[in-house]
Amino acid sequence: MSFLLSEQRDKDFQGYWRRYEEYIESVRDRMPPGAMKLALSAEWYDFRCHHCPHDAWLQEFKISEGATASGQKRGNSAGLKLLGAYHDGLLLLHYPRLMSFNIQASALNGGLGDWRYDEFRLSTNENLLHEIEWASGARWLIEADDIEFQWQPFEAEPA
Fold first, then answer.
1. Which residues, in sequence order, are CB contacts of 134 under 8 Å at separation 6+?
2. What sign does the CA torsion over 43, 47, 48, 49 have?
3. Closest C-alpha among 59, 63, 61 to residue 77
4. Which end of the chain has the smaller Cβ count within 10 Å, N or C?
5. Spatial contact of 31 and 126, defined as CB atoms under 8 Å apart
């Protein structure tokens, strides 16, 4: 069930946020800490905030798989690098342990376009689900143990 994506916003603009807040409160004790911090952050969803992902542009999506020794169980992690909507910094997202991902993009002639909306939920396995909707119509569903976020502002030009 989604709460904050365009379908929900278009159907019931007034109620979508209240239902998401109720959902987040209901999973507060089970949501991974990094995801919970972002889900509760008013700035994450404030389109005027420079480190809000809305309208950001994808620069890189990277999946890494590794093991440090032969025979060791391999694991996956993922990272996203986004140019902020105001083009004054980078949003860096890291999913330390990736369980699954699903990328649906039927046409990418002009790229993914802007990051539109996203939300955090729990999967049936109690992992983080991060669903992202792009302006091109692409949708990503990432299942991971948690998410780490870093805002990296660009250095100001000397006067």
1. 58, 105, 112, 113, 114, 115, 116, 140
2. positive
3. 63
4. C
5. no
Tell me the DSSP string of 76-145.
Answer: EEEEEEEE-TTSSEEEEEEESSEEEEEEE-S--TT-S-SEEEEEEEE-TTS-EEEEEEETTS-EEEEEES
pTM of this structure = 0.88
Task: Look at phi and psi of residue 103 and say left if phi exceeds 0, alpha if psi is from -120 to 50, else beta.
Answer: beta
CA distance linking residue 149 with residue 2, whole number of Å: 22
pLDDT string in tens for the chain (159-residue length): 665 556 666 666 667 778 888 889 999 999 999 999 999 998 998 999 999 999 999 999 999 997 666 667 788 999 999 999 999 999 999 999 999 999 998 776 778 899 999 999 999 999 999 999 999 989 999 999 999 999 999 987 666
Whether 44 contacts 155, CB under 8 Å: no
Sign of the alpha-carbon dihedral angle for 104, 106, 110, 115: negative
